[in-house]
Amino acid sequence: MKILDRKKELVLQRELMFANAIGAAVFEKPKVHFWMVLIPLLFLYFIYRMQKYKTGRMNFDREFMTTRRKAVDLAVEAIETDVKPDIDQIARQSGLLDALEKPYAAWLKALFDYYTDLLTANGDTFESLVRSAYRNRTDFLLTLNRLNTVEKDFYTALKPRMSTTEGAAAIFATIEEHSRRLRRELAESIFA
Fold first, then answer.
1. What's the pTM?
2. Which of 16, 52, 160, 165 places its Cα 20 to 30 Å from the Cα of 139?
3. Smallest Cα–Cα separation from 73: which of 43, 39, 33, 116?
């Protein structure tokens, strides 16, 4: 396996862990109660709810990772070819509404820059890549705060289009809140 491929795998593994943690905050896992075992119909309903939960989490993780995977792939291609992608053009071709293109391009650019930093850094673990790329907690936090800001801007642009979807505002708020917290915890654990 090439070194760049290994770094890509490390970055995507960390991002998937991030997606899983966000998904756990967004989706409420059904709880089994002892009396459900006594009433089979309730237990069957619990099994149904658990299947729905698992399917929802898997779909969430897949969708949450779509832009992140795209940005990692763009970073890998840019490193291999030494040609920076036209992120604005990619955003225009994304099929999003015009009002979403600019915030999406900003988010994709921030992810691209972040992943490029990590993929060009030295290290054989995600933590060592971060330490090599950013050198200290402050620099890493500045990058993470930039990610938080552009993601929030994209969600803010998306919210009016999702206003008819029940619970969408609460989901966006949960994602934003947990993203900030998880990223801060990551920085603190790497630069402890």
1. 0.89
2. 16
3. 116
- Provide the token pair at 126: 């995600």
Q: What tens-digit pLDDT sequence spans the chain (192 residues)?
A: 699 999 999 999 999 999 999 998 988 887 777 666 677 777 777 787 778 888 888 888 888 899 999 999 999 999 999 999 999 999 999 999 999 999 999 999 999 999 999 999 999 999 999 999 999 999 999 999 999 999 999 999 999 988 888 888 899 999 999 999 999 999 999 998
DSSP state of 82: T
Q: Which domain holds residue 169?
A: 3-190
Instruction: Copy the structure tokens of residue 18.
Output: 């991030």
CA angle at 58 for the pair 35 and 23, rounded to the nearest 5°: 75
DSSP state of 1: -
Pairwise CA distance, residues 66 & 177, whole Å: 20
The total domain count for the chain is 1
